[in-house]
Design brief:
The complex is a heterodimer of chains A (about 290) and B (about 290). Chain A is about 35% helix and about 25% strand. Chain A contains 10 helices and 11 strands. Chain A has helices spanning about 15-25, 45, 75-80, 105, 145-160, 175-180, 195-210, 230-235, 250-255, 265-280; strands at about 1-5, 30-35, 50-60, 85, 90-95, 115-130, 130-140, 165-170, 185-190, 215-225, 240-245. Chain B folds into 2 domains: about 1-55 and about 120-290, P-loop containing nucleotide triphosphate hydrolases (Rossmann fold, 3-Layer(aba) Sandwich), CATH 3.40.50; about 60-115, 2-Layer Sandwich (Alpha-Beta Plaits), CATH 3.30.70. Helices cover about 40% and strands about 25% of the residues of chain B. Chain B is built from 11 helices and 13 strands. In chain B, the strands form 3 sheets. Chain B has a 9-stranded mixed β-sheet with strand order 3-8-9-2-10-1-11-12-13, with helices on both faces. In chain B, β11, α7 and β12 form a beta-alpha-beta unit. In chain B, α5 (about 145-165) runs parallel beside α6 (about 180-185). The longest helix of chain B has 19 residues, at about 145-165. The chains are: A alpha/beta (about 290), B alpha/beta (about 290). Chains A and B meet through α4, α6, α7 and α9 of A and α4, α6, α7 and α9 of B.
């Protein structure tokens, strides 16, 4: 089962849930945790394991070969992203705008724009007992997160196909990178907090998952702050709440030090057990 | 005209609460909410929309089945695996299509079109403060958030010019990708709102690396500063090493969530406590902007 842990709003506890659920579940089954928040991946702060494999993630962008070029301008005409421009007697390539579609390269009659590797980031695969943990980190200055997300998912598909449970720590928001991280998942678990910000961004995440026709449930974090509007919303929208976790300063302090919670806080462990039970009812996990 | 961009790298550090509080104490200003993916500023500033506009950006391929001869060339060349095939019927997977137009260029019978996409809406509104809020809503699953951010910033600049306003406060988005890059472009000062957790520090370091490339000066607020004294000290070291001014350290305070729950900024929720504090922060920011 592929479980995507997402939320519209950042800072609601996505990573905390993903990490602790993965470590707790790995006590009794083979689990994969994928950190797909490639812009700011933080799962690795909480998980210390043995580095199994490291891999550079790349994409391909065109490079101008002046000698072969006849300056026909076809490349700049077909590029919809303004990444290839004809300026006087020069072809200017702006790799940060390139989506890697190959149109300029393959439609060039002179083969004057061959595609070359360009680094996007690094993937690291760690092993901690029966948990496989894969994180990808985007190089600073790279604009597009989606190729890293797709390559990380493809890596897990190829290298770790036999896990009974795959947990994905997704990026925040509702845009293209969230879609990429969740669209082939079996189930979405949306993390929120009971404040108007939490509720507003949860409703965006719910719309996104409905758009993708994804079954979903909610986890409410920091119960005790705010009000009960999030609970009313879930009831009205008929979205099950799988667990709620209390607001405690002690939990925030453990988190701040990069410590795990499943092995230290009883109320967290009970909530994680409730989530694993729901997953197994859906036929996922062990 | 001066532009202050408020970002955090990590979500949940109190960025929007800080931005909203500053909106209450900053004179001669308007607010631009560039967190177009999950905008929350309007929940506090309660804007009345004065002007709404659909935003079109980017393309998606469409195959006309009446013209398509099912040659399969489009599927062969598409690097995004966006051409689906059911028997001899080809269609475009809307979510996978990047709108590059390669299929459009190569189709031998011109069965493919590339309509422009409505990716969201942008708004110009009047807030309960009397100031203007420029904001936007990215469509579900839409690309081009960077371009929508650029649109919000452009509108904000235009209106500031028209109204003779001197300061633009920009609430940025999380992460370090295209919307943040777009938020930073053209800014005069960046205010980082961080928290003393290992995640907060790591995200701050990454977003600062990005900011440095734009050669923009940075200042920082440490929120929830007493949550972890050791990491707060590490953040202070990092700031002084990098030449980022530390404006203030704000202790962990439940007023942040209480104010949000009331739909208020901190300055409205408990004025005697927060107004002087944010007035001081605003004075510090103005000094940096000089």
């Amino acid at each position: 089962m592929k479980l995507a842990i997402a939320s519209g709003k950042g800072g609601t506890g996505k990573t905390t849930l993903a990490v602790n659920l993965a470590l707790h579940a790995a006590n009794s089954q083979k689990v994969v945790l994928l950190d797909l928040d490639v812009e700011e991946p933080n799962s690795g702060i909480f998980i210390k394991g043995e580095l199994k494999r490291e891999k550079q993630l790349v994409r391909h962008v065109p490079v101008w070969e002046k000698e072969a070029c006849t300056l026909c301008g076809k490349c700049s005409e077909v590029c919809r992203f303004n990444a290839v421009l004809k300026l006087g007697k020069h072809i200017l390539v702006m790799p940060e705008l390139c989506h890697g579609c190959y149109a300029c390269s393959e439609l060039c009659p002179e083969n004057a724009l061959p595609m070359q590797e360009s680094a996007l980031g690094r993937l690291r695969h760690h092993q901690i007992g029966s948990l496989d943990f894969v994180e990808s980190k985007m190089i600073i200055g790279v604009e597009m997160a989606t190729p890293l997300i797709e390559q990380t998912l493809a890596y897990a598909e190829a290298e770790i196909p036999h896990a009974s449970l795959q947990i994905r720590d997704c990026p925040p928001g509702t845009s293209c990178s969230v879609i990429n991280a969740t669209r082939d998942a079996d189930f979405a678990l949306l993390v929120t907090e009971p404040t108007p910000f939490g509720l507003h961004d949860l409703s965006l995440a719910v719309q996104t998952m409905r758009f993708l026709k994804k079954p979903m449930a909610v986890v409410v974090n920091r119960v005790g702050i705010g009000n009960d509007d999030v609970f009313k919303y879930c009831e009205a929208e008929d979205i099950p709440i799988w667990a709620s976790f209390p607001h405690e300063r002690a939990i925030a302090e453990l988190y701040s030090r990069g410590e795990t919670l499943y092995d230290k806080v009883d109320s967290i462990r009970a909530g994680l057990d409730a989530i694993l039970l729901q997953i197994s009812k859906l036929g996922g996990g062990k | 005209m001066k532009e202050l961009v408020i970002i955090s790298g990590k979500g949940g550090t109190g960025k929007t609460s800080v931005a909203a509080a500053l909106a209450f104490v900053a004179e001669n200003s308007l607010i631009a909410d560039c967190d177009v993916d999950a905008a929350d500023m309007h929940l506090i500033l309660k804007p009345d929309e004065e002007f709404a506009e659909d935003f079109y950006s980017g393309l998606k391929a469409e195959i006309d089945p009446a013209i398509c001869t099912s040659c399969g060339l489009c599927q062969e060349i598409c690097r995004f695996h966006a051409i689906k095939q059911v028997d001899s019927f080809f269609s475009v997977d809307f979510l996978a299509c990047e709108g590059c137009g390669y299929c459009f260029e190569i189709c031998p019978v011109k069965a493919i079109s590339l309509p422009q996409q409505n990716v969201g809406q942008s708004f110009i509104s009047n807030t309960k403060l009397g100031t203007k809020l420029i904001h936007a809503r990215l469509g579900i699953g839409a690309d081009n958030s960077g371009k929508l951010v650029a649109k919000v910033k452009k509108d904000a600049k235009r209106i500031a010019e028209e109204k003779g306003l001197y300061y633009i406060l920009v609430d940025g988005s999380p992460g370090i990708g295209c919307p943040v890059i777009s938020s930073l472009s053209g800014a005069d000062l960046v205010l980082f709102v961080t928290e003393p957790s290992l995640s907060g520090l790591s995200d701050l370091q990454r977003v600062w690396e990005l900011t440095k490339r734009f050669a923009i000066k940075g200042v920082c607020l440490i929120n929830k500063a007493d949550l972890n004294a050791e990491i707060s000290a590490q953040i202070r070291d990092f700031l002084s090493r990098e030449g980022i001014g530390l404006l203030q350290e704000i202790p962990y305070d439940e007023d942040f969530s209480r104010a949000i729950t009331q739909g208020q900024s901190l300055v409205e929720y408990a004025p005697e406590k927060w107004k002087p504090r944010f007035e001081k922060i605003w004075e510090q920011i103005k000094k940096e902007l000089k």
